[in-house]
TrEMBL record:
SUPFAM superfamilies the record matches: Nucleotide-diphospho-sugar transferases (SSF53448)
Organism the protein comes from: Selenomonas ruminantium
Presence of keyword Protein transport: no
The name this protein goes by in its record: 2-C-methyl-D-erythritol 4-phosphate cytidylyltransferase
MF GO annotations: 2-C-methyl-D-erythritol 4-phosphate cytidylyltransferase activity
Length: 234
């Protein structure tokens, strides 16, 4: 099975709103529903386990029913950190098979691309993990003080990591057992695996897969929803 652990456990303080950013309405639809609809429509996604900010579980369940989200199998409260929220979502899955693909995705990345999900699942089946990435197009610098630098970083050796990211069921069990033994808690499952000695394999990311962090990101999301790509663009 291919199962998504959907992280919606944060308040999103940088957004500066009175409600969690995943529940902000854009065109009368909550952000998290856009994300769930993308997962609902993907033919390779079998189920979704949501990790929700505590106190909003019933709200999410109501929205899921309203928008006919049939793949949502459960909702659990998030933890104090992303690491703990992700682990709570993984543990809520119960028994998983060794070759199951367990996908972690942010609820506030509503424009996740279908082909990115498919490529990530393919890579994970070959290597037991995958992370969607993008090349760095901008000139990169090493910050050497809060407001200055004198060092350029060669961008050809850098990538930008996104969610979704994933592990096999077997790797998930090994990962959390090894993390507990070593006392390691890192938010990203890809960064966690790197810290524990594993290599991470790349899958195709998307520039449209923006993370809604600030109010300007909401404006960009609304513009993307209203824009269709010209037919002549490849």
């Amino acid at each position: 099975m291919n199962i998504v652990v959907l992280l919606a456990g944060g308040m999103g303080s940088r957004m500066g709103q009175d409600i969690p950013k995943q529940f902000i309405h854009v065109n009368n639809i909550p952000v998290i529903i856009y994300t769930l609809l993308a997962l609902e429509k993907h033919p390779e996604i079998d189920a979704v386990q949501a990790v929700c900010i505590e106190g909003w579980e019933r709200v999410l369940a109501g929205y899921a029913k309203q928008f006919n989200i049939t793949k949502l199998r459960g909702i659990v409260p998030g933890g104090a950190t992303r690491f703990l929220s992700t682990k709570a979502g993984m543990m809520a899955l119960g028994k998983v098979e060794d070759d199951d693909v367990l996908i972690v995705h942010d609820a506030v990345r509503p424009l996740v691309a279908s082909d990115s999900i498919s490529d990530m699942i393919r890579v994970c089946k070959e290597h037991e993990n995958a992370m969607t990435v993008l090349d760095c197009a901008d000139t990169m610098y090493m910050r050497q003080s809060p407001d200055s630098t004198s060092q350029v970083v060669e961008r050809a050796g850098l990538v930008r990591g996104q969610t979704p990211e994933c592990v096999s069921g077997r790797r998930m069990r090994e990962m959390y057992a090894r993390a507990a033994e070593q006392g390691v808690e890192i938010d990203s499952i890809s960064a966690l695996q790197v810290a524990l000695g594993w290599q991470i394999y790349f899958a195709k990311g998307s520039e449209r897969n923006i993370k809604l962090t600030r109010t300007e990101d909401i404006d960009m999301f609304k513009a993307m929803l209203a824009t269709e790509r010209d037919e002549w663009l490849k």
